[in-house]
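hey
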C-alpha cells in the first residue's frame, strides 16, 4: 500500500501528512516555515510541495484531499483581533485621544495591549461616536413588567410601577388591588369587623407558613441538585477510580488529599483576580491559603478532556509517589468541579524566567547560582525519565516552568502537558504540543515524542542561563530570533564569549562556561539520537559544579595566604611568632618575593 493510501485512510491531522498546533493568545508575531528533511524525494508522486497556513480553529477539519487540492488557491477563514492604541483602559482613559463616547465604557482585551469601547447596559449604538450610544426604550422592546404594572423608561433602565387601582404589597413584593374604603362601623357591627380581622390575620399567617414551606422545599431541592451535580463531576473526573487507585498505594493515601469545592473557594477568596499567580495554555494558577494557614498554588484547568480522565488519574498516582526535592510537590486535587483542580506547594521566589530576564533580578543571579539551578533541574528531569515508577516526559520544559525558592533551589513545575510512558515503549505518537522556542524540531516534524525532546528543551534553558536572552524574540534581528539556532552558530564560529551575559564571566570560570556551553550545544542537536540523556547531562553538570567549588576553594586559600605574606613585609621576620608557621614564613616569602603574582588559571 502506498504512502498516499495510508494518509488517505486518516481523517485527523495526527502528524502523518499533516501536523497542527494552536497559536497562544497574545502572540504578536509568528513565522510559518514549511519544509521537508528529504526534499519531498520519497513523496514527490503525490505531495511535491509543503503548505503552511493560519486558519480559524473551529472552521478547519483535516481531509486527505488537502494533500493534492491545496494547490488550487482555496480560501481559508481567519479571525482578526484588534484594539485601539497600545495602552490599557486605566492609562488611556485620561488621555486626550481617548475615543469612547458618552454612555460607553472602556474594555481591556483578554490578550495583548490597547482597549475597546462598548455601550453601557441599557444603551445601544456605536460606542466610538461622541453620542453614538443611545438609550434603549425597554418599555417598547422588552421588559419584565406584569399586567398589573406599567413600564416607565429611564436612562439605561426602566421601572415597573403599579397601575391605577393597585398598590405595592411590601410583604409579597407585588401589585395588589386597592381595598374599597370601609365606612365607619356602628356598634352593632363591631363583632363582625373583629371576625373579619381575625380571618384576614389567619389567612396571612397561613400564607406566610405556606411561603416558608415552599422556600424550604425549593432550597432543599436546589441543595440536593447541587450535591448531585458535584457527585456527577466527581465520577466524571475519575474520582471513583482515583479512590480505588489511592487505596492500593499506601504512600499516596498518606500524602494526598481530595479537597472539596468549598475548601478551595475559601482558600482563594472565590478565585479572586488578585490571587492569580499566572496563566498558561493549560489553565490559571491561584495563590491560596488553607485553613491550617498552609500556602498553596491551585491550578484550575481551562478545558476538561474526557478522553484523558484515566491518563489524568495515572499521572496523579505517579506524581503523588514522587518525592524529589526539585519537583514541586502535589498536595492533592478537587474533582467536584467541571474540570479537575490540582493543589501544589507554593514556591515563594517566582520563576527562573523572571530572574533571568528582569534586569533588577538578573544581576543578582550569579554564575554559581545559575549552574546550581541548571544542575538541580537536570537532576529532577533525569529522575522523571529514569527513576519514577513509570517514566514521565515533561513536554514543556522552559524557564517559566522552573520555580525558585528563597534559597534559589530549583523546583520543576507544570505537568499539564506531561505524558506517562509505558515501560515497554520508548516513544509516543502525539499531537505536537509545547512552547515555541523550546520545541524539539524533530518532534515537530515527526510527532514522535521521546525523552530526548525534554533534553532539547533543557538545552534551550541552559542557553538562556548563559546568555540572558529569551528563547524566542521578534525584537532581535531575524538571524538571532531563535536562541537555539543562534547559540549553536556562535559556538561553531568561536563567538561564545561575545554572547555570554557579561556579569557572569570572569577569568576563573571561562573554561567552565565553555564546557557548559558545549554540553548545551549537544542537547540542541537536531537529531534526538545525537543528544545525551538527561542522566548524562545531570552527571556532567554535577561534575563541573563540584570542580568549580574545588577550584574556588583553592583560589580562596591561595588568596588568603598571599594576603598574609604580603602584609608581613611591614614586620620583622626575626621575631619568632608562635603561630605554627613562623619557620616557613620567611622561606615562602623569599620564594615569591620579586616574582609577579599571577591569577590561578582555571581555578586549578
Amino acid at each position: 500500500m502506498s504512502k498516499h493510501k495510508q494518509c488517505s485512510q486518516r481523517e485527523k491531522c495526527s502528524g502523518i501528512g499533516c501536523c497542527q498546533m494552536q497559536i497562544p493568545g497574545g502572540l504578536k508575531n509568528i513565522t510559518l516555515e514549511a519544509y521537508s528533511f528529504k526534499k519531498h524525494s520519497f513523496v514527490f508522486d503525490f505531495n511535491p510541495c509543503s503548505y503552511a497556513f493560519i486558519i480559524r480553529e473551529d472552521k478547519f477539519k483535516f481531509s486527505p484531499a488537502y494533500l493534492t487540492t491545496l494547490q488550487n488557491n482555496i480560501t481559508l477563514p481567519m479571525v482578526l483581533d484588534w484594539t485601539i492604541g497600545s495602552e490599557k483602559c486605566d492609562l488611556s482613559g485620561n488621555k486626550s485621544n481617548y475615543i469612547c463616547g458618552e454612555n460607553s465604557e472602556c474594555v481591556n482585551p483578554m490578550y495583548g495591549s490597547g482597549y475597546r469601547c462598548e455601550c453601557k447596559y441599557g444603551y445601544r449604538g456605536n460606542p466610538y461616536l461622541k453620542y453614538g450610544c443611545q438609550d434603549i426604550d425597554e418599555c417598547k422592546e422588552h421588559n419584565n413588567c406584569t399586567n398589573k404594572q406599567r413600564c416607565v423608561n429611564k436612562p439605561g433602565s426602566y421601572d415597573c410601577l403599579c397601575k391605577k387601582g393597585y398598590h405595592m404589597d411590601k410583604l409579597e413584593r407585588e401589585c395588589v388591588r386597592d381595598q374599597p374604603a370601609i365606612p365607619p362601623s356602628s356598634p352593632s357591627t363591631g363583632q363582625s369587623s373583629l371576625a373579619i380581622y381575625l380571618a384576614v390575620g389567619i389567612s396571612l399567617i397561613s400564607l406566610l407558613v405556606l411561603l416558608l414551606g415552599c422556600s424550604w422545599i425549593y432550597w432543599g431541592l436546589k441543595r440536593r441538585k447541587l450535591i448531585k451535580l458535584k457527585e456527577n463531576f466527581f465520577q466524571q473526573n475519575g474520582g471513583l477510580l482515583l479512590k480505588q487507585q489511592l487505596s492500593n498505594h499506601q504512600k499516596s493515601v498518606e500524602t494526598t488529599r481530595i479537597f472539596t469545592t468549598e475548601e478551595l473557594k475559601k482558600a482563594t477568596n472565590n478565585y479572586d483576580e488578585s490571587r492569580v499567580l499566572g496563566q498558561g495554555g493549560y489553565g490559571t494558577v491561584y495563590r491560596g491559603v488553607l485553613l491550617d494557614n498552609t500556602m498553596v498554588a491551585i491550578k484550575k484547568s481551562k478545558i476538561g478532556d474526557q478522553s484523558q480522565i484515566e491518563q489524568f488519574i495515572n499521572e496523579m498516582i505517579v506524581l503523588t509517589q514522587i518525592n524529589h526535592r526539585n519537583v514541586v510537590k502535589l498536595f492533592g486535587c478537587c474533582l467536584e468541579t467541571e474540570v479537575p483542580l490540582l493543589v501544589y506547594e507554593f514556591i515563594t521566589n517566582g520563576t527562573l524566567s523572571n530572574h533571568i530576564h528582569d534586569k533588577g533580578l538578573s544581576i543578582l543571579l550569579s554564575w554559581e547560582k545559575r549552574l546550581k539551578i541548571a544542575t538541580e533541574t537536570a537532576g529532577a528531569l533525569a529522575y522523571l525519565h529514569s527513576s519514577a515508577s513509570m517514566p514521565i516526559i515533561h513536554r514543556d520544559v522552559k524557564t517559566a516552568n522552573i520555580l525558585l525558592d528563597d534559597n534559589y533551589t530549583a523546583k520543576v513545575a507544570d505537568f499539564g502537558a506531561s505524558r506517562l510512558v509505558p515501560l515497554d515503549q520508548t516513544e509516543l505518537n502525539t499531537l505536537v504540543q509545547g512552547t515555541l522556542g523550546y520545541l524539539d524540531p524533530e518532534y515537530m516534524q515527526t510527532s514522535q515524542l521521546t525523552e530526548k525532546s525534554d533534553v532539547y528543551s533543557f538545552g534551550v534553558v541552559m542557553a538562556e542561563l548563559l546568555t540572558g536572552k529569551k528563547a524566542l524574540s521578534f525584537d532581535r534581528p531575524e538571524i538571532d530570533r531563535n536562541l537555539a539556532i543562534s547559540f549553536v552558530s556562535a559556538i561553531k564560529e568561536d563567538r561564545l564569549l561575545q554572547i555570554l551575559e557579561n556579569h557572569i564571566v570572569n577569568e576563573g570560570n571561562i573554561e567552565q562556561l565553555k564546557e557548559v556551553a558545549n554540553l548545551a550545544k549537544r542537547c540542541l542537536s537536531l537529531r534526538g539520537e545525537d543528544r545525551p540523556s538527561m542522566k548524562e547531562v545531570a552527571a556532567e553538570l554535577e561534575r563541573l559544579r563540584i570542580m568549580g567549588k574545588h577550584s574556588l576553594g583553592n583560589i580562596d586559600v591561595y588568596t588568603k595566604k598571599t594576603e598574609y605574606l604580603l602584609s608581613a613585609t611591614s614586620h620583622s621576620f626575626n621575631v619568632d611568632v608562635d603561630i605554627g608557621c613562623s619557620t616557613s614564613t620567611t622561606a615562602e616569602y623569599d620564594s615569591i618575593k620579586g616574582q609577579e603574582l599571577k591569577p590561578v588559571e582555571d581555578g586549578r
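The chain has five domains: 1-80, 89-135, 227-346, 350-558, 559-603. Residues 1-80 form one domain.
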